[in-house]
Amino acid sequence: MSSSASYVDLLIVGAGPAGLAAACWAAQYQMSTRIIDQKGNRTETGHADGIQSRTLEILESFGIVDPILRQGIHDVDMAHWVTNNGTGNIERHKRFEADSGQRSRYGQIMLNQGAVEQVFVDYLVSKNVYVERHKVAESLHLLSDDGDDTQQFPVIVGARGVEKYEKDTIHARYLIACDGAHSWVRNQLDVPADEVSEASTWGVLDIVPITDFRLYNHPIGRRLVRHYRPHERVFIVGDAAHTHSPKGGQGMNISIQDSYNLIWKLGAVITNGAEPTILETYETERRPVAKQLMDLDSRLVQAYEEEENDNSSGIYEVREQYAGFMAGVDVTVLRVTDRGGSLCFRVIYANRRGWKLWSVLQTPSAEPLT
Asked: CA–CA separation, 253 vs 111, rounded Å?
């Protein structure tokens, strides 16, 4: 069995939407990055399929929104179908119109997760970054580190190839755990989480009318880790940090937005000499978003349950109340101050009201400041 060792700035474990988005962002900087995944291929079917306004803005900043817009279905309406007890037929009961783009230049797009992942992968290839498939992380060692010397490589991950059985020791400055709901990294570090389980199971159907369909069962449960940064050099991102039901169409979006929030800060620290204290803001900014997502999910589950009693108006009330959050545009104003020559960024939560304000707050290019 062959073995090798390497040194990188960032090691990303997991090549789902969160991991791929992190790698795309990191490719904008003069940083070395490796991304590994135990699966042999990207997602083929199922999983997430809704892309919200803020996520499309992020993709635009990378210059990769066009293939998403070409492939996706625009202006998606949501309908509720129920069984007519008199006829036994399934009938459309209510309809919820899509966001027309009043909060952003983009409305919602429907495109399956696999196609979104492929757009990320194609972008990475153009940057000479390649996902290392069939590679499993087996061991994690964290050397003593004061957190301020960003030139050290205190994270040591032992990995193994599934097919060729080669051993690989990866020394990294930072480890980013994007390895999903059953996160290996999270489990290795025994990161505590708040968990809630519901007493029901829901199904998600991918349907092509008058043909076969696929059914995905989702036991209703929510998990939110208490620490997004369980170690000075380790960050938990996406489903590894928060899981919930698929009802709000938020999982892939919040995960990509987690990565977007974190990576520019790591890039600033590693390549531009920013103070590592800026990394503390990842948790203080992103965990409250996930907490709000847990609240939304809880209310949606309750509203859907009440629909059984023909009281489905509650679903629309919840969605209307959280519309800005679900689109991803209830956030953010950046305030920049100069502290002794170092830029300090602070996020202030605010609602964007209308097109004019959005134009002022439009995300700039993903090219890093130098």
From this structure: 12
97-152 tens-digit pLDDT: 665 555 677 878 888 888 999 999 999 999 999 999 999 999 999 998 765 666 68
Indicate the number of domains in the chain: 1
Render 163-190 in DSSP notation, one character per residue: TT--EEEEEEEEEEE---TT-HHHHHTT
DSSP state at residue 280: G
Residues 6+ apart with CB under 8 A from 10: 22, 26, 31, 32, 33, 34, 172, 173, 174, 175, 176, 266
Q: Higher pLDDT residue, 320 or 168? A: 168
Specify whether the backbone of 355 is left (phi greater than 0), alpha (psi in -120 to 50) or beta: alpha
- Distance spanning both ends of the chain, measured CA to CA: 43
* Residue 209: inside a domain: yes
Q: Report how far residue 241's alpha carbon sits from residue 179's, in angstroms, rounded to the nearest whole number.
A: 10
The answer to whether 270 touches 31, Cβ cutoff 8 Å, is yes
Q: Which bin fits 345, alpha (ψ -120 to 50), beta or left (φ > 0)?
A: beta
Question: What type of residue is 30?
Answer: Q
Query: What is residue 299's predicted lDDT score, i.e. its pLDDT?
Result: 80
Write down the pLDDT at residue 95: 75
Residue 237, domain extent: 3-73+104-329
Dihedral (CA of 314, 320, 321, 322) sign? positive
Q: Is residue 281 part of a domain?
A: yes
CB 157 within 8 A of CB 193: no
CATH code of 301's domain: 3.50.50.60
C-alpha 370/C-alpha 358 separation (Å) is 26
Taken in order 229, 179, 15, 326, the sign of the CA dihedral is negative
d(CA 152, CA 166): 26
C-alpha span between 170 and 156 (Å, rounded) = 6
User: pTM for this one?
Assistant: 0.80
